[in-house]
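Researcher: Let's do a round of design. I'm pasting the structure tokens now; please hold your answer until I've finished.
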């Protein structure tokens, strides 16, 4: 980072380095990054319109993913939006496709069916639901969702005759706090 003095405030101005995404070949890396600290999120592009997933800030939990087509999500309807990319993530994780808060708040746009398993290598599509009464226009390059990498836990399934008792028991659907 370069620090320069801002003449108006007499405070140092901090400039973030521009993110550079390096293209690697299949045999160049294992499941670790080049510095050995963090796993890689491997991404394959299918078209020139594909935008690589990117973080909005250093501490963002998710990577923004973008549309590669112009389409309309009809009012009270849904649409499958292509991203023209596929991903490879670590075993023991999955990628969750989640809503972007700005789209949810400003346009009532939500994401559905958002689980990408670690062994899936096909194209990533994003199902957008439009909960508003107005059609929603999607342009090429629009950030439409975010990709969050999460750990999975898949315990062995064991059939039992009974389950342990809890204070809550079988109460559900609004039964707590009543």
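Researcher: That's everything. Go ahead.
Model: Designed sequence:
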């Amino acid at each position: 980072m370069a620090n320069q003095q801002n003449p108006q405030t007499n405070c140092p101005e901090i400039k973030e380095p521009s993110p550079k995404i390096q293209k690697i070949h299949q045999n160049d890396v294992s499941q670790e990054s080049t510095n050995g600290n963090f796993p890689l999120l491997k991404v394959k592009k299918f078209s020139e319109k594909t935008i690589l997933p990117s973080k909005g800030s250093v501490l963002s939990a998710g990577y923004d993913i973008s549309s590669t087509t112009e389409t309309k999500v009809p009012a009270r309807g849904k649409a499958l939006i292509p991203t023209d990319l596929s991903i490879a993530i670590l075993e023991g994780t999955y990628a969750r496709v989640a809503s972007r808060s700005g789209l949810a708040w400003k346009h009532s746009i939500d994401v559905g069916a958002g689980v990408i398993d670690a062994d899936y290598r096909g194209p990533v599509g994003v199902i957008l639901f439009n909960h508003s009464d107005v059609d929603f226009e999607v342009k090429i390059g629009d950030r439409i969702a975010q990709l969050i990498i999460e750990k999975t836990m898949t315990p062995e399934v064991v059939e039992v005759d009974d389950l342990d008792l809890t204070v809550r028991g079988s109460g559900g659907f609004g039964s707590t706090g009543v």
